[in-house]
Structure formats: structure tokens, C-alpha cells
Amino acid sequence: MRSSGKGRIALDIGGTKFAAARVAGDGTLEGVETTPTPKVGVWDACAALLGKVAGTEPVDRIGIGSAGPIDTVAGTTGPLNIAEWRNNFGIVAAVQDLFPGAEITFAIDGGCAALAEYRYGAARGVPNLLGMVVSTGIGGGIVLDGQIVRGRTGNAGHVGHIVVNNEDPCACGGVGCIEAVASGPSTVRWAQAQGWAGTTGIELSKAAATGDPIGVAALHRSGTALGQAISSAAALLDVDLVVVGGGFAQSGPLLWDPLQESLRRHAGLSFIKELRVVPAELGGLGTLTGAGALTLDS
């Protein structure tokens, strides 16, 4: 069922930035605004951003995509990369207080990104897919039969915590999660432990592109682990398309070639032998676009 209201807002809650925009009837984002995620006063920054986007116009529907873990039953978010909210923040109630009477739909960021790619991006016409975001952390989302799979608490598709080794400690409290191995910061930490002197994923990718042996090895290690995690998830979900976005996923062939090689090695079951992994098309606006799509459906 389509919403008849015109006052739609999308909100993307990320570990490094928040983004918000008005949403047109065709899902187009209008007037996108962003703000860095602060260390303290996180809600104040978020509220100010929403107020700026809303202006004086009425708001009747709000879609929220948030880094996880989340709890859609309780309406809370506890992103591992937002220390002030790590013990769960009541995001739905807080937004409701700002916009009394507005209908709020809440989903994990990876689910929103996957939905956006299905409707508007690299997965158009493919109703069964896994979406991944490889950036500061690794998130994900599942779309089956054209709908986000939410799970008991809304965290279905949180593929960043598929286990790929028994070595790297993860911020979630576990060991060997793909996020602890192949996210941008995790790859940088591994490279630094081998003697590399840089500090960021962008620097590491550039170093690898110039032939730096540690940089090449670091991207190869992360790409291989990503292929392993993706093949495991695809076998579980019975999908033949995986869309990968996020800043660190843009590291080029030195990440993607070992990813594809790893897929060929691990994706052996007949129903995933044709598994395709493609770059996301919507870039940094994927989650926000998906949050906007939530406001178009009842």
C-alpha cells in the first residue's frame, strides 16, 4: 500500500556520519544533509539534523536505517561504533517525540541498502539477494521475494559476524568475525602489525596499488575472507546475487580478485555455482535511499 502523505523523511544512522533527506513519491531523495557522528551528544546531533531536513513542513512518515545491532521490537539501536549508544538507545521513541503522530519504520542499515539496490540499483529485477557494506564495519541485509528479511529482532542479514577464522578478536565479543578481519580498520590493523606505517584504509589501498607488499598482502587476506563469508551466506540463503558496497569495497582489483578466487574455491554447491558478486551502484546513499523506500510501503 502506498503512502498518501507527502511529508516523508529518511534517516541513516552510521558509525561515522548521520544522513537525512526528504523523500519524494518516487523514492528520490531531496535535500540530503549529513553530519559527522560525534563522540558525545549523539542524539542532539541527530535531532538537529532531522530538524534541519524537516524545516517547517509537516512530517507524516519516517524511515530509519541504522547500524546494528538493533532491536525493532524495542525500537532501540546499539551500534558497536557509537560508544554512547552501545548499550542501546531508544531511537524510535526519540524520533517520535520530535514528530508526534508520524509513522516510523525502522530497519538495519544493511537491509535498507539491499532494498535500495533491489529497487533502484545493481539488483534491479533480482528479488533474492544479499547486500553487504564493507566500510568502517561490515554490515549486511537480505532481500527475499522483494522484501527485507528482518528476523526476530530486526538483525537478520548481519553478515559482519560470520566467523572466518579463530584468530582476530571482534568488538562484538566474539573471535574471527569477518568484520574483525576485512573491514577497513581491521585490514589496516593487520597491515600495521606487519610493519606498515600508514593509518587509513584509503592509504592502504593506494599503497597496495603501487605494489607495496604489505598492502597487497593485506587486501588479499581481506578479499579472501570476504569471499569465504559470502559463499557461506549464499549457501544458507539460496541467493545468486550479492551486492557489495561501502568505502573499503572500492579498493579495486587487489581486493576483488582474491574475493572472486575465494568464491570459486568455496561456492561448490550446485545452486550457488553461478553466484555473482557485483559492486553496489548507489554508493554512500544506499542506506538512506533504502530508508526512504521504507516510507513508501505500508
TrEMBL record:
Domain of life of the native organism: Bacteria
Pfam family, one: ROK
Name of the protein described by the UniProt record: ROK family protein
SUPFAM superfamilies: Actin-like ATPase domain (SSF53067)
Family (UniProt): Belongs to the ROK (NagC/XylR) family.
